[in-house]
Amino acid sequence: MISDDSRTMLEATLPAVEGALGAITENFYRRMFDAHPELLSDLFNRTNQKNGSQPMVLAGSIAAFARLQCEPDLELQRTIIERIAHKHASLGVVADQYPIVHEHLFAAIVEILGEAVTPEVAAAWDELYWEMAHVLIGRESELYSAAGVVPGQVWRTVRVTERDQVSPDAVSFTVAASDGTALPGFVPGQYVSVQVPLADGAHQIRQYSLTGAAGEPTWRFSVKLDGEVSSWLHEHSFAGDDLSVSTPFGDLTLPDDDGPLLLASAGIGCTPMIGILHHLVRTGDTRPVQVMHADRSRARQPHRGELGELVAQLPGGTLYQWYEHGVSAEPTTRIGLIDLADIPVDPAATALVCGPTGFMSAVRDALVDRDVPADRIHFETFGGVR
Fold first, then answer.
1. What is the pLDDT of residue 54?
2. Of 44, 186, 225, 331, which one has the greatest count of Cβ atoms within 10 A?
3. Cβ neighbours of residue 271 under 8 Å, at least 6 residues apart?
């Protein structure tokens, strides 16, 4: 717990820190990568470093955690910690790496804010960092234990057994254990990290949602042609090739209850929904399930046929689709951006949403307007982190 004195200091200095986040994070990453270049080549997403999206994610998370000490919201805090901890676990992050971040982050804060960082200010932010770090380390330890792996030891070699084109720019890979044993189980909606060797010697990592049914001896995931890792997989990975893949993690998962579901996705964001739908079909689930998907066109939609077939097998399943281009071919197909104005929405539903940030914000606002409580709307972003 943050002390009262530190909480007061955080509240007083948070606006200044938030205002300087861009400069602080740029300085921090430059310092850390100069001292530890292997972190940029083998752990952090280089593409997202170049476009600035990943630095602002880290900065935003720390600032959000600080604000939650001043304006407590335990549910939001839990959501932030769960999202970060699952991502860290999928990368094999361990406790020994937190002091590295601390050293360079605080050096950046001191350099950017200068004399404003008094000993009292430094102590408050130091306490905040280690509070967040200890919470994350503890949660990551729980995730590693639940997965049956030693902290950080999440990688295994798997063999590609099938490669299928699921849209003009997306490929589905089925992988199996190299020794012929069954791969570990997973919770529907989870993802794996895939690490590939690039031409310059770097080993970059991306996450891909599992689209097969939980309980199968193999794993299946789809890759849209976008970015270094995805391009490498499209160009170099075929049946018979080996891949380095992590244990499954991820918090956008099927809820434990049997209440109504609403699954909303856009583009390749359909992949966690495909995995969840396979599980619902396999277990004979009869609950109401509304599936909403938005895409550029029918021709470019990944898993289009599979999505329709899965929903059709659910007694309570309903599918609505929106396309930016084309003509409406079915009663539940619309042309244009997603719009829930005339869609019946059950306020008791749990909503799982995956897609670009703008799409997720629009869906969230629409669902809240339809009386779905915000704490029952869960997200997974596709784009910068994938």
1. 62
2. 186
3. 208, 209, 210, 211, 221, 222, 302, 303, 354
What is the average pLDDT across 57-66? 78
Mean pLDDT of the chain: 92
Q: Token pair of 332, please?
A: 């539940």
How would residue 240 be classed by pLDDT, with cut points 50, 70 and 90?
Answer: very high
Query: Any idea what the Cα angle at residue 308 is, between residues 83 and 87, rounded to 5°?
Result: 10
The catalytic site residues sit at 98, 140
pLDDT of 212 above 70: yes
Stretch 89-117: mean pLDDT: 95
Which pLDDT value is given to residue 201?
94
The domains located in the chain, with CATH, are 4-147 (1.10.490.10), 155-246 (2.40.30.10), 261-381 (3.40.50.80)
Instruction: Flag whether the pTM goes above 0.90.
Output: yes
CA 123 – CA 80 distance, rounded (Å): 23
- Tell whether the model's pLDDT for residue 383 goes beyond 50: no
Can you tell me the distance from the alpha carbon of 158 to that of 175, in angstroms, rounded to the nearest whole number? 6
